[in-house]
Amino acid sequence: MVLLDGRKTSQELKQEIAAEVAVLREQGKKVPHLAAVIVGNDGASLTYVSSKVKACEQVGFQSTLVKLPEETTQEALLEKVYELNQNHDIDGYIVQLPLPKHIDEEKVLLAIDPKKDVDGFHPANFGRMALELESFIPATPFGIMQLLERYDIDTQGKHAVVIGRSHIVGRPISILLSQKGEYANATVTLAHSRTKNIKALVLQADIVVSALGIPNFVTSDMIKPGAVIIDVGITRVQDASTPKGYRIVGDVDFDNVAPKASYITPVPGGVGPMTIAMLLKNTLLARKRSEG
């Protein structure tokens, strides 16, 4: 069993990005600039956004954090989005989700300029990705594809079962794995809450990508020997024995599944660190494309 180390791989990616940024700086060219918009004081969102800002510093990006109060109206947020669309100094930006309930997330995401949509959530980018055209790939699926490539995992003609059909992970990774390419060309089954006899289906899989958010959903009796296991799930589970009072658990029962797997991502330390690295990669791509 080989551990797919997202922390190590993301650090390698950041070093590569930093090297490219250093060249831009030496040439007197503009370095990439990533902005993040956060509305309200959601603890998890604040932590996540601050980690993105820190990552920007590590690779030499400029970064801007736009903090708006919880009571910000939809109109005011849309004005900020339009402002960022017109700001030529900013190469890419994200609007941190979830947004307060009184704001229509779909309207906000649709208002983002697809050329600056480094989260890859805009329908224009999703559609271009599906058609194998130049686009921004959502960061988590992009990170999964990078792990497969960097660990040289054979996906050609393999049966991949993706559990979960969200627009952020499940659906895009199912498309990416099925496309033509050295680390794709898989036969993909997309399973979800209405899928019948999911255990029998997962047992057929050479590659399992679980993005459900249900702790320990994937158990060892669902996995065939030698399968590749990608665990996207991140759930806080109460645990009084830990200093924080909780622990982070994935969709996969790691201790019992790992001995049967050929490759497996840990949680934490697997897909999570890759997500921020790929957001940086998308921002660098946005900077390069803005020149063309």
What does this structure look like?
With 292 residues, this protein is of the alpha/beta class. Helices cover 40% and strands 16% of the residues. It has ten helices and eleven strands. Strand 2, helix 2 and strand 3 form a beta-alpha-beta unit. The longest helix is centred in the first third of the chain and has 21 residues. The model has no long low-confidence stretch (mean pLDDT 96).
Layout of helices and strands, plus pairs?
Blueprint: E1 2-3, H1 6-26, E2 33-39, H2 43-59, E3 62-68, H3 74-86, E4 92-95, H4 105-111, H5 123-130, H6 139-150, E5 159-163, H7 170-178, E6 187-191, H8 198-203, E7 207-210, E8 228-231, E9 235-238, E10 246-249, H9 254-257, E11 263-264, H10 271-291
Parallel strand pairs: 1-11, 2-3, 2-4, 5-6, 5-7, 7-8, 8-11
Antiparallel strand pairs: 9-10
Overall strand count: 11
Low-confidence stretches: none
Strand order of the largest sheet: 1-11-8-7-5-6
Q: What's the CATH first level of the largest domain?
A: Alpha Beta
Report the structural category: alpha/beta
Largest sheet entry: 6 strands, parallel
- Give the proportion of residues in helices: 40-55%
Tell me, what's the shape? Answer: globular
Averaged pLDDT: 96
Instruction: State the CATH topology of the largest domain.
Output: Rossmann fold
- At CATH's second level, what is the architecture of the largest domain? 3-Layer(aba) Sandwich
How many angstroms separate the termini?
Answer: 44 Å
Q: What is the count of structural domains?
A: 2
Strand content: 15-25%
Instruction: Specify the number of helices.
Output: 10
From the alpha carbons, calculate the radius of gyration and give it in angstroms. Answer: 19 Å
Fourth-level CATH superfamily of the largest domain: NAD(P)-binding Rossmann-like Domain
Secondary-structure element order, N to C: EHEHEHEHHHEHEHEEEEHEH
